[in-house]
Amino acid sequence: MGCIYLFVYRKVLTTEKLLALVSMYPWNLAAILIQAYAPEYLVEMFMNTISFVLVVNIVQRPEEQINPTVGIQSHIAYMSDMKKAFALNKPVQILLVKILNHQALLNILGYDTFNSLLKKFAGKIQSCFGGKGSPCGFYYLENGLFAVTSENVSSSFFKIPAQKISEMITDSIQMGKLDVELNGCICVFNCPQDFDEYDKMLSFLNTFYTYFPAKGSVTYLEELQEKQKAELRMRNEINGIVSKAIAENRFEMYYQPIYSVREKRFLSAEALIRLYDENYGFISPELFIKAAEKTGTILQIGEFVLDSVCRFAAECSRTGLPIDYIELNLSMKQCMQNDLTEKVLYYIEKYNIKPEQLNLEVTETAANTAQDIVAANMCELSKHNITFSLDDYGTGYSNFSRITELPFHIVKIDKSMADKVFDKTMKTILKYNIQLLKEIGMEILVEGVETEDMFKQFKEMGCDYIQGYYFSRPLPKNEFVEFIKSRQ
Ligand code: C2E
Ligand code: MG
Ligand code: MG
Questions:
Q1: Among protein residues, the one whose CA lies closest to atom 43 of ligand 1
Q2: Residue of the CA atom closest to atom 3 of ligand 1
Q3: Burial of 148 (C-beta count, 10 Å sphere; 0-12/13-18/19+)
């Protein structure tokens, strides 16, 4: 029986556990043989004892199975149970609850109260399924993520408990004298129906809450429209899609014209990367850049961007296209590279362009996250006459002393802020922000200008550059060249 079990579960066990279990057979067999010939030595009993010690210490480790702070099963137990279910092709229904504000709550409440909160919440989830005697599995998967699994895959089975959990999230939870508000997202799905592979299911755990609505709403995967399912699959497979695109060199640079109010002409352009996937169409850079940033492939993408933009800048000066410089976006990881300066200078030399033909966009978050290395990179590059723009101004908390410390020339006001120009209060805020930034020596560029009205408003406020659909969307290289020629 032992041999059969070992064979069936061989893929589920780690090598260490498998070796411990398999090694019991030759030892015990040898002990039986010895004892058959010399019954006065209790060798078999001795080997049994050793085997039990091995099983208890290596194979069966209860502290791995239960999360001691939350009091339900741990993520290790979840992974091994799910591996088992996939290996045996056993259908499971899974409910996930993600507390989205868990980091903020941890910061406010401190470890002890936060852990009590998790424990209380875990108990409440259990009670929604009928308490500890329930046939479901309850797991805490770290970082505010809970899972409940059931072998009952009927679609109505999780309906009422999911609703109860949703109400629990909408109401606040009392922790002594504190009223704690949770912000959570709930999702119900089936395996292998929705995810036919263990790894796909695992990567879904890390992404589902970025796509579904928060505030306690429940999403049933089986009820989603085909289009939403495709988007979900794409988000789940994004890392694979990006690696494939890098291997097949399938990225392309688009260019969006930037208008200079003073010179009344298109003076520069922002280079924006595009990825077309044969299964999912155009994928937003916001999505794949974020994913590439996490996996580190962003550095390869960054080199592609640098190479393409420098090549295009050389083409512009060779053909006499009146574009003074091209802005390119630097990702956070690129800004942190200690050989960034050499890399940029390498491409400038390779295509024989002037450093003034490049302008690098750095976001506020990048500038604030890795302060020293980013500041060192920026100072080094500006010594070589490369200029910088501060991207996405207005989306975070601006640190003015930080902005003035770094060699920025241009501040790019984000679309989300620019859109509010018709609101009276926001218009005042924008006006004085622009005035203040100009007074400390910055030039102002507004992004996302879509209408003539917006264009006029920002021109009146003294903005230097305008970028947006009002003039043109980002265009493939050839169309961009045509656009500039026709507007010359
Ligand atoms: P960003 O650098 O702030 O780029 C501006 C975004 O606003 C672009 O979106 C552009 O297409 C869009 N946009 C411009 N004018 C308008 C308008 O009038 N209306 C609307 N609705 N949108 C407008 P896109 O191309 O989707 O890029 C999104 C973000 O992805 C960029 O934000 C940037 O952070 C990142 N990104 C794009 N290309 C690259 C790249 O080559 N490297 C890196 N590291 N990041 C990139
Ligand atoms: Mg940008
Ligand atoms: Mg921007």
A1: 329
A2: 392
A3: buried
Q: Spelled out in words, what is the top-level CATH class assigned to the domain 239-486?
A: alpha beta
Domains 65-236 and 239-486 in one fold: no
Q: DSSP 3-state assignment of 451? A: coil
C-alpha to C-alpha distance for 71 and 443, rounded to whole angstroms: 57
The pLDDT confidence band at residue 62, using thresholds 50, 70 and 90, is low
Instruction: For 27-61, write each residue's pLDDT tens digit.
Output: 888 888 998 998 888 888 888 888 878 777 777 66
Amino acid identity for residue 126 in this structure: Q
- Counting ligand 1 atoms within 8 A of each CB, the residue from 255, 258, 329 with the most, and so the one to mutate, is 329
> CA 382 to CA 471: how far, in whole Å?
30
Query: Given this model, what pLDDT does residue 473 score?
Result: 97
Query: Of all atoms in ligand 1, which is nearest to the CA of residue 450?
Result: 18
Centroid of ligand 2 to alpha carbon of 6 (angstroms)? 56
Residues 6 or more apart whose Cβ sits within 8 Å of residue 405: 375
State in words which class domain 65-236 has: alpha beta
Domain ranges of the chain: 2-60, 65-236, 239-486
User: In angstroms, rounded to a whole number, what is the distance separating the alpha carbons of residues 282 and 285?
Assistant: 9
Sign of CA dihedral 122, 123, 129, 131: positive
Atom of ligand 1 nearest to the CA of 412: 3
Backbone angles phi, psi at 106, to 5 degrees: -60, -40
Instruction: Give the integer Cα–Cα distance in Å for 464 and 268.
Output: 12
Q: Which pLDDT value is given to residue 437? A: 93
| Closest residue by Cα to residue 353 from 380, 326, 390, 389 | 326
Task: Tell which atom from ligand 1 comes closest to the C-alpha of 253.
Answer: 41
